[in-house]
Amino acid sequence: MSGAIGRLRPPPSGPADRAQRAQAFVSAVSLEVSAKAMPALRAEAARMAQGATISIPYLPSEDDTARLAAARTVRELGFEPMPHLSARRIGSRAALEHFIDRAVIDAGVERCLVIAGDLSKPAGPFADSASIIESGVLERAGIKVVGVGGHPQGHPVMTSADRWRVLERKCQRIEARGMAPLVITQFAFDADVVLTWLNELRARGITHPVLVGIPGPASIARLVRYAAMCGVSASTSMLSRYGVSLGRLLGSAGPDVFVDRLVDGLTEAHGQVSPHLFPFGGIAQSMEWVEHYRMRAGDECLAQMSVQLVQTPDLPLRCPCCGHRTLDERGTFRICAVCFWEDDGQDDYDADVVRDGPNGCLSLTQGRANYKAFGASQMKDLPYVRLPFPHELP
Ligand SMILES: [Zn+2]
């Protein structure tokens, strides 16, 4: 007889397990928050998991002082600040050193994201993210994790082969310098494109954790505008795969479909993959979405588990004497391990009868009274009984 506890647990790949994975996936969410949005992050901080990574983008409209203040705020709120370093916008090596030193000392920054940046001509000595990695500034200051960009939807100038070669090389160089690489993808609207890219990433032996960029809930007009600003393809077919109803382009949309597809497609072979939300519609709206998605997954999980309970026809049957669920059949002379009553089919309807069967001169009523009094149906069987398991309780 298999224990009922095993049956209560959802099967490893069943729908309840999927709901659990969905819940765990969104619970590990990280967020991109610019310096000017720090008050909004502070207001929503209680809704985010402590220790969550908050990446701080390098906006031309914000200076190093603002970015450092933002990193300190993120740390103060109990999160992990990850400032972006935009190579081509950094004026000098001294400026990079100063920023990183202050970030590490004042805000306990341990991770940063290096990107080339959007200037066509570098403002200083750093032409690309590799030149920042190779500068030695990061590990010397105490940076432990270095994020590099991944591009599931392609790159405006590089071919696919070049892109992979560059990514592999950057990860190797970060490791060679004693730091841990982290891959952060540009946001995309099509989860299948991201899954295909993740398959190739892992097939190439790049096993580092990945943060998948996901557009947070926003008005469709805003989603399209941000996509254009960031050079992300947002064709109507891609938007429809994200869950945008093309009949109502004036409405808003959230990443439910995107995250559902990702959760369905991710396997253990994909390693550590977590969602990185770009809160285009505001931080409050994104956190609300995370809460709703998590609750929906939780409800699905419970619903699936109760369906399984209802569908389980072979729950162990109650022993007529002690009442515990110890019998897999009734009336077939099974001996209850909890009270040692031998089940010859006697039950409430003839409980007072002494059947002179396997239980000798004992009626079921007497057996029940004995069990209540000293824990076995008969005193002579007391050495053989055991306590009921939790799943056997009536
Ligand atoms: Zn029993």
From TrEMBL:
<dbReference type="Pfam" id="PF14206">
    <property type="entry name" value="Cys_rich_CPCC"/>
</dbReference>
<comment type="pathway">
    <text>Amino-acid biosynthesis; L-methionine biosynthesis via de novo pathway.</text>
</comment>
<dbReference type="InterPro" id="IPR025983">
    <property type="entry name" value="Cys_rich_CPCC"/>
</dbReference>
<dbReference type="InterPro" id="IPR029041">
    <property type="entry name" value="FAD-linked_oxidoreductase-like"/>
</dbReference>
<dbReference type="InterPro" id="IPR003171">
    <property type="entry name" value="Mehydrof_redctse-like"/>
</dbReference>
<comment type="pathway">
    <text>One-carbon metabolism; tetrahydrofolate interconversion.</text>
</comment>
<keyword id="KW-0285">Flavoprotein</keyword>
<dbReference type="Pfam" id="PF02219">
    <property type="entry name" value="MTHFR"/>
</dbReference>
<dbReference type="GO" id="GO:0035999">
    <property type="term" value="P:tetrahydrofolate interconversion"/>
</dbReference>
<dbReference type="GO" id="GO:0071949">
    <property type="term" value="F:FAD binding"/>
</dbReference>
<keyword id="KW-0560">Oxidoreductase</keyword>
<comment type="similarity">
    <text>Belongs to the methylenetetrahydrofolate reductase family.</text>
</comment>
<dbReference type="GO" id="GO:0009086">
    <property type="term" value="P:methionine biosynthetic process"/>
</dbReference>
<dbReference type="GO" id="GO:0106312">
    <property type="term" value="F:methylenetetrahydrofolate reductase (NADH) activity"/>
</dbReference>
<feature type="domain" description="Cysteine-rich CPCC">
    <location>
        <begin position="318"/>
        <end position="390"/>
    </location>
</feature>
<protein>
    <recommendedName>
        <fullName>Methylenetetrahydrofolate reductase</fullName>
    </recommendedName>
</protein>
<keyword id="KW-0274">FAD</keyword>
<dbReference type="GO" id="GO:0005829">
    <property type="term" value="C:cytosol"/>
</dbReference>
